[in-house]
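Subject: for your reference before the review

Hello V.,

The reviewers asked for a structural picture of the protein, and I figured it would be easier to keep everything in one thread rather than splitting it across files. Below is the amino acid sequence we used in the manuscript, unchanged from the supplementary table.
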Amino acid sequence: MAKKERVLDANGYPKFTMLDNIAYAAGDFGCNMSFALKGTMAIFWTQFMGLELWYSLLLVVVQVWDAVDDLLIGAIIDADHHRYKRNKFLQYIWIGSIGLIIGGACCFVPLPNAPLAAKCAIFVGGYVIWDAFYTVANVPYGSLLGLISEDPGDRASLSAFRSVGSLVGNMATMAILPVLIYDASNNIVGQRVFLAALIMGFLGFLCFQFMIKNTVVRVNTDVKVDDAPRFNVITAVVNFAKNRPAMGATLAAMGMFLGMQGASTATAVMFQSYFKNAQISGLVSMFTMIPMILFTPLARRMVNRYGKKELSIVGAIVSCAACTMMLILPITPDGKGIAMYMVCQLVNALGLGVYSTVSWAMMGDAIDYNEWKTGTREEGTVYAIHSFFRKLAQGLGPAAALVVMTWLGYVGSLGAAQSPETALNMRYFVPAMTLFSALLQLIGLGLIYNLDKKTTAVMKQELDERHA
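And here is what came back from the structure prediction:
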């Protein structure tokens, strides 16, 4: 039986279908098979490896390098005008996916009896190896969204399915990892984390290969090498600073990650010491992500009707309200308290889900905005600078949170046996961090991001006229 061919559009490319959505979602699922383990890193290095506050200092160091690394990779990609067989973005993703097979495991080498200097070297070296391959895969992956389709509805759909890929990857690890890596006493077992990282790296590689095979690039931005403008990273950074949509979306993303990553360690400790049940923490977190998935099928229709900026602002307001309720309600250390916590997180996830579903489409529009205002497309650099600040937030959030947690009485060597006062402090610290996160999102989306529905339509029309 002959293989069914895909219907072509007016430009001779296969028409945009559900396969495009699924393939793009598989890419972020692959990223999250590696990235989701980052939430376990603080517990592994403070409780199992015994680095305590050394971890906070080293995390800031490697996270700054992580952020700089994104800029370097983005600049390399934008300056690369070589004509690859599959597409330069897909080529870089393929290279990164190979390294991620073992990259994640390098961050969890279980040697708790090693000297302090050796532990520090293992952490820094492992993180740098993982980050190099993750960046090589992730930066071009994010840049690719704007090249799969120019249609705003298609981009919203791709962004929504990317969020689904991310959520499913996160949910799978949230549900399974705590059961695998914690023992009956609610303490982490390092050897189990290392093995889980190897398995997840291989699963991520398979997902990336599926994405590469089934991705169609419909927006042609290639230029002849002789005609290629000389790439200037300083000019690209200045252009980014003038790009209000990119700045607003970046602040919102930083807020989201400061809350999510900063609160992740405190959440784990809260379930260890306040609710006294670390193994269900993943299931609870997974359950609270359901509203994000439920919103995904509605994303394209709602974006076409209301606009990405407008929807995201409403979502941020809902998150602020939910986090405030979580802070003031009497959440007790029993089943009733866990249920109340889950309800608040469900509402928070609904608000967060609106923004997270369209966030990548908003960055695609920000890349178009850069071309609209400057006449130059700089996908790699715009996305890389955005990723720079996201990763800075991902590093500063957990590091700052650990410092505050220590001030609140947290002692890593005690594991699950924190004092009652510390356990209670974690119960209030978690919603405080998530409320701070929601407020930053509201500021970025409401006051800085300036591409509402009407302006986006004007921008697209003028760019179409230029391209024609």
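For the response letter, the relevant points are probably these. The chain has one domain: 18-216+227-467. The longest helix spans residues 335-374.

Happy to draft the paragraph if you're swamped.

O.
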